[in-house]
């Protein structure tokens, strides 16, 4: 199947408007319409329901959209990885959110450097939840990421499962308590991840988030390692006893055959196991 036709199809499926999709693709609407008809003919299915005023996906179109996005990401990723492999000095790109490594990153890199298959590592610092996209698009070879996330096309190995704490301004009424529950924070079971996402949208990084906590504007729920690593005047941390653990994994593309990436995964698993034994967990 022609990747150009898939790219055209995705544009129309996302815009649900041929004129907007054509502008996005920098082509005129007539050749775009012909391309979509060609794709429908090749597949023997109708991908769009068209009326004078609307365009909508059929059931077949909905299925193809999900699969086409994966296929186009895989093609893009293959090209990027091939370019990196051909570089005079190949390197491995590890994506991680700053302060989102449960304190394991330095030890993982040190252990990895001792692996015979190791290559230089470029640590790519990214925003909240960007790691899966970077992996699928070939911009990273491996990533440290907290669950939950979209695992499509990725393999993972669990590194840590930490208790959760809530960060509070020292003047917050709940700061006088030794431990708290989700109900104390106004949360019902099943609402925690939505709450975490809402908090993240209000801050760019951990330093900004904790500054907002000190001002009494946020009460984020965080992995317990944050409390140990980032004490801050005016901010207190309290255990949230019934919150599900914060699970950190190392993720990599399912289709990866890189011995360097496999060595990094081994190093990360070894460091995580040693940390669990040290902590008695």
TrEMBL record:
<dbReference type="GO" id="GO:0003700">
    <property type="term" value="F:DNA-binding transcription factor activity"/>
</dbReference>
<dbReference type="Pfam" id="PF00126">
    <property type="entry name" value="HTH_1"/>
</dbReference>
<dbReference type="Pfam" id="PF03466">
    <property type="entry name" value="LysR_substrate"/>
</dbReference>
<dbReference type="GO" id="GO:0032993">
    <property type="term" value="C:protein-DNA complex"/>
</dbReference>
<keyword id="KW-0238">DNA-binding</keyword>
<dbReference type="InterPro" id="IPR036390">
    <property type="entry name" value="WH_DNA-bd_sf"/>
</dbReference>
<dbReference type="InterPro" id="IPR000847">
    <property type="entry name" value="LysR_HTH_N"/>
</dbReference>
<dbReference type="InterPro" id="IPR005119">
    <property type="entry name" value="LysR_subst-bd"/>
</dbReference>
<protein>
    <submittedName>
        <fullName>LysR family transcriptional regulator</fullName>
    </submittedName>
</protein>
<dbReference type="InterPro" id="IPR036388">
    <property type="entry name" value="WH-like_DNA-bd_sf"/>
</dbReference>
<keyword id="KW-0805">Transcription regulation</keyword>
<dbReference type="GO" id="GO:0003677">
    <property type="term" value="F:DNA binding"/>
</dbReference>
<feature type="domain" description="HTH lysR-type">
    <location>
        <begin position="1"/>
        <end position="58"/>
    </location>
</feature>
<keyword id="KW-0804">Transcription</keyword>
<comment type="similarity">
    <text>Belongs to the LysR transcriptional regulatory family.</text>
</comment>
């Amino acid at each position: 199947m022609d990747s150009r036709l898939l790219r055209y199809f995705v544009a129309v499926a996302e815009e649900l408007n041929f004129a907007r999709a054509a502008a996005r693709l920098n082509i005129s609407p007539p050749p775009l319409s012909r391309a979509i008809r060609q794709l429908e003919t090749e597949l023997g299915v109708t991908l769009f329901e068209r009326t004078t005023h609307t365009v909508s996906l059929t059931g077949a179109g909905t299925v193809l959209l999900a699969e086409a996005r994966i296929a186009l990401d895989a093609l893009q990723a293959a090209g990027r990885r091939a370019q990196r492999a051909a570089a005079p000095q190949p390197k491995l790109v590890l994506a991680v959110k700053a302060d989102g490594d449960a304190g394991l990153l330095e030890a993982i890199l040190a252990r990895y450097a001792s692996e015979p298959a190791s290559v230089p590592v470029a640590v790519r610092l990214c925003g909240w939840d960007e790691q899966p996209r970077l992996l699928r698009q070939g911009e990273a070879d491996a990533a440290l990421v907290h669950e939950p996330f979209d695992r499509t096309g990725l393999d993972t190995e669990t590194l840590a499962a930490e208790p959760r704490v809530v960060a509070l301004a020292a003047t917050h009424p709940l700061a006088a308590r030794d431990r708290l529950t989700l109900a104390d924070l106004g949360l019902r079971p099943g609402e925690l991840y939505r709450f975490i996402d809402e908090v993240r949208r209000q801050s760019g990084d951990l330093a900004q988030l904790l500054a907002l906590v000190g001002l009494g504007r946020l009460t984020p729920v965080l992995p317990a390692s944050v409390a140990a690593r980032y004490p801050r005047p005016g901010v207190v941390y309290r255990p949230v006893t019934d919150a599900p653990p914060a699970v950190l994994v190392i993720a990599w593309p399912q289709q990866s055959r890189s011995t360097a990436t496999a060595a990094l995964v081994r190093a990360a698993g070894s460091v995580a196991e040693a940390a669990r034994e040290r902590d008695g967990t």
